[in-house]
Design a protein that fits this description.
Strand order of the largest sheet of chain B: 1-2-3-4
Order of helices and strands of chain B: HEEEE
Helix content of chain A: 10-25%
Strand content of chain A: 35-45%
Distance between the termini of chain A: 79 Å
Number of helices of chain B: 1
Strand content of chain B: 25-35%
CATH architecture of chain B: 2-Layer Sandwich
Number of strands of chain A: 36
Oligomer: heterodimer
Largest interface: A-B, 42 and 40 residues
Number of domains of chain A: 2
Structural class of chain A: alpha/beta
CATH topology of chain B: Pantoate--beta-alanine Ligase, Chain: A,domain 2
Number of strands of chain B: 4
Number of domains of chain B: 1
Helix content of chain B: 40-55%
CATH class of chain B: Alpha Beta
Radius of gyration of chain A: 30 Å
Largest sheet of chain B: 4 strands, antiparallel
């Protein structure tokens, strides 16, 4: 036995086997590493292509909306497959997002799936190409004090003239730095607020369901986790950053109430927020929202240093005051309501408030004698709007507008008198508005949808 | 002069040698692949570089005010590349395609495609 072990016969086979094993191991590891590298390179390329194709899906949908002008969508997103190019298809879903449309596009390209989500509004229609359009009264637009209008003006046959109020005349160097177009008969440019009313209906429906579920619970839960969002019942004051501290930034949060609520605290709220309360809603402190939709039939007030991208919906009153700063693309929409033979509704900027986006007041100057329209947009001195203002009734403008105003008429109140179609110390500069400024849907006769931002 | 055989060593048997040679020849196959690996590695590197060039060209096209078709010759990672950017109108949309080739070759290494509104 020992003799056999000592024998060197057959050692070459052992050596060769060891050598081969080592070579195979080394070779295999190199090959595997190479294959992994190739896979990574190809996967990156496929993922990149899937991403660009998903973006293409959004643009193709936008083009189709532009062609057929149908931006009506159901409350439940529908998935639809569209062909892009070659053998690449995208799955598209459309859903309302306040005054905008949310398009989600998903593409699978060689086992890599990419999803992009875009917020779509519309480019400014021709009616907002002028600095001022007065669409409801034929008499002259009267300018007083340090009023400055840079851009074209569309008015009735009264034209534009300088006035004098309590000994103060027009102090500007030129009435209008642009063309004056006198139109007769006057007509307010088209504004179809059906999508905005639908946005309100969606929030109301969600609130009704949430309240029903909330009160049916045996033990009242402060929040419920539904399939698509986290829901919180609120009453009174709430420190919002503290409430959302443990919530993922990707979650959609729905805050609902059957009473007045006040959101306070300081910090950036990065997740999409929807707020719906039966009572008044107050946002104060220093809250900055990335994407929030807020509805109250009573009133919405944003104050302190709060702001960010906010879409505010009401039937009664919106007040933006103090140092509130609403960023692009914000929307302040008041649908107005009728009480005691009056159509009421107001949007007011006070203090040092600044809004970048759109203000829309959907009133109309009723011809029925028994109904008075007292709805109004007010831009107080010291405040500023960068964007567009559409007022179906009257506008009191004493601040700065970098953009365009379309109003039924202007109003200037100097106690004890109201002056119709007068402007005092007001600034309007149409040239300061970027050509690519996107507004909510659907202003104008023919809409041209465009991506506002990627979500 | 007679060569004296070392004591107790009759040399490898023929069977041992044949088996060893057979096994070694089997080892040559993966060894040859190691050599080609260098080339494969370069291919993976090329794909990465081509992907980066395609993405840069696509972003450049998307950020431009108006789209212009172009062909550019570039040197990257010590190699020459040809980046071809083309656009095809389709209604309100433009189909933008970027294809990256190695200089002198007609075989695309990376290609990207998207749509934008005109």
């Amino acid at each position: 036995m020992l003799k056999n072990i000592k024998s060197e016969q057959g050692s070459a086979l052992v050596v060769a086997l060891m050598l081969i094993t080592s070579m195979v191991i080394i070779t295999s590891s190199f090959l595997m590493a190479h294959a992994a590298r190739m896979r990574v390179a190809q996967r990156d390329l496929n993922r990149m292509q899937a991403f660009y194709a998903a973006e293409a899906g959004v643009y193709k949908t936008v083009a189709r909306l532009s062609e057929n002008q149908t931006v009506n969508f159901s409350q439940t997103p529908r998935n639809e497959s569209i062909h892009l190019f070659g053998d690449t298809n995208a799955t598209i879903s459309l859903s309302p997002h306040g005054g905008f449309l949310k398009i989600k596009s998903t593409v699978k390209f060689r086992n890599q799936t990419e999803e992009v989500c875009a917020l779509v509004g519309q480019t400014m229609p021709p009616s907002f190409s002028s600095a001022i359009t007065v669409g409801g009264v034929q008499h002259a637009l009267v300018l007083v004090g340090d009023t400055s209008i840079k851009g074209d003006v569309v008015v009735g046959h009264g034209g534009v003239k300088a006035g004098s109020l309590k000994g103060v005349g027009f102090t500007g160097d030129k009435l209008v730095h642009g063309k004056i177009e006198q139109v007769s008969p006057l007509q307010m440019p088209r504004f179809d607020d059906s999508i905005l009313r639908q946005a309100i209906a969606i929030l109301q429906k969600k609130q009704t369901q949430a309240l029903q579920d909330f009160f049916q619970e045996d033990e009242m839960q402060i929040f419920a986790n539904t399939s698509d969002s986290l829901e919180f019942y609120l009453a009174g004051e709430t420190d919002l950053p503290a409430l959302l501290d443990s919530v993922s930034k990707k979650s959609t949060v729905f805050l609902f109430s059957d009473t007045n609520i006040s959101l306070r605290g300081a910090g950036k709220i990065q997740m999409p927020i929807e707020v719906c309360a039966t009572g008044a809603i107050s946002i104060n402190g220093a809250l900055s929202f990335d994407d929030a939709i807020v509805y109250s039939p009573e009133s919405i007030t944003v104050s302190g240093k709060s702001g960010g991208s906010l879409q505010l919906f009401t039937q009664n009153e919106i007040i933006i005051k103090e140092n509130a700063n609403l960023t692009y693309p914000s929307l302040l929409y008041c649908s107005t309501h009728t009480t005691e033979n009056k159509i009421q509704g107001s949007v007011t900027l006070k203090g040092s408030a600044h809004v970048v986006g759109a203000i829309a007041l959907a009133g109309f100057d009723s011809t029925a004698r028994k109904i008075r329209n007292v709805s109004r947009v007010t831009i107080e001195k010291g405040t500023a709007l960068t964007g567009i203002l559409y007022s179906g009734y009257e506008t009191a403008h004493l601040g700065k507008v970098a953009g365009s105003i379309v109003t039924n008429r202007f109003i200037l109140y100097e106690a004890p008198t109201s002056f119709h179609n007068w402007l005092k110390d007001a600034k309007v500069d149409r040239s300061k508005l970027n050509r690519r400024f996107i507004i909510p849907l659907k202003f104008g006769d023919k809409i041209k949808p465009e991506v506002v931002r990627w979500l | 002069m007679a060569i004296k055989q070392p004591d107790g060593d009759a040399g490898y048997t023929i069977i041992e040698s044949i088996i060893a040679m057979a096994l070694l020849s089997i080892a040559i196959f993966p060894t040859a692949r190691i050599i080609t690996k260098v080339q494969f590695n370069a291919m993976a590197g090329d794909k990465l570089t081509a992907g980066q060039l395609a993405q840069a060209a696509m972003e450049n096209a998307l950020s431009a005010e108006t789209f212009v078709s172009s062909t550019a010759e570039l040197t990257r990672s010590g190699k020459r590349w040809r980046v071809v950017r083309s656009g095809k109108m389709s209604g309100a949309l433009i189909e933008i395609t970027v294809v990256v080739y190695k200089s002198g070759s007609q075989k695309p290494i990376a290609a990207l495609q998207t749509l934008r509104l005109i």
